[in-house]
C-alpha cells in the first residue's frame, strides 16, 4: 500500500495513489494512525471509499508531518565517509532532524539567505509502527510500518561551524520527505538490494545499493533503542552515499531554479525545485 498526505481545497487529507489520481481516505495523519496502533497494511482496504482527485490538483505534504522523532544517520556508506575525510566510525553517527525542516514532494527546498552552501543527500527513510527499548535485531523488522524517500538537504557552512551537525541539518524547508509511504510488505526485507540515486537537473550525482550501508536497518533500530525509547511514527533516515556536492571540485551546490530528484527501486520519485529564501 502507498499512502500520501496532501492539501486539497484547503484541507489536509490522507490518501492512496491510483495512477495519476489520489483516493481520499480521510483527514487522519500517518502519525495519528500509528499512535493508535492502526495496521497500515489493511487500513486503506477498509477506508477506501473516498473520492478520486487528480494528482495535479493537490499539494503534497511531508508523508509524516510530525513524527515523534527523526533520527538521521551520518557516514553510513563507506564511500561517502571517505569523500568526507572522516575515519569510518564503529558506531552509528546519529543526529536529530526536526519537523519544522520538512517539506513535501514538489514543494521548494529553500536555500537560506545566510549561506550559499545548500547540498543534496539522497536517502531512504524508515517509519516505525512500534518501538520500545532494547529491541533485538531479529525483531526489528516487526517494528517497521513502511519506507519513504528523503533529501537530507544540508547547509554545509553551518553544519561544520561546530562538531555537532544539528544546525546545518535543520534549516527550515531543507528536508524533503515523501512522496509516499510504501508499506513494509511491498519492500524487500530491510530494504535490501535497492538502487538509490540522486539527480540534480537530470544528471545522476549519487548512485549506490542499499546493501552498501555500513549499519543496516535492523542494526540501526536495535542500536538506537539501546539508549532511546522508540515510538510509533519515529523516522530513521538511513544515510547517503558518495557524490555530495560539497566533496566535489568545484563544489556542486543547489541553487534557485535547480530541481533535485531522489529515486529508489520501486518507489515513486521524490522531486523538489530549489528556491531562495524570501
From TrEMBL:
Superkingdom assignment: Bacteria
Coiled coil stretches, renumbered: none
GO BP of this protein: carboxylic acid metabolic process
Domain Fumarylacetoacetase-like C-terminal: 69-274
Entry annotated with the keyword Aminoacyl-tRNA synthetase: no
Cross-referenced Pfam families: FAA_hydrolase
Gene3D superfamilies according to UniProt: Fumarylacetoacetase-like, C-terminal domain
InterPro entries for the chain: FAH (IPR051121), Fumarylacetoacetase-like_C (IPR011234), Fumarylacetoacetase_C_sf (IPR036663)
Alphabetized GO MF terms: hydrolase activity; isomerase activity; metal ion binding
Keywords: Hydrolase, Metal-binding
Entry similarity comment: Belongs to the FAH family.
Name of protein: 2-keto-4-pentenoate hydratase/2-oxohepta-3-ene-1,7-dioic acid hydratase in catechol pathway
Organism: Pigmentiphaga kullae
Lineage: Bacteria, Pseudomonadati, Pseudomonadota, Betaproteobacteria, Burkholderiales
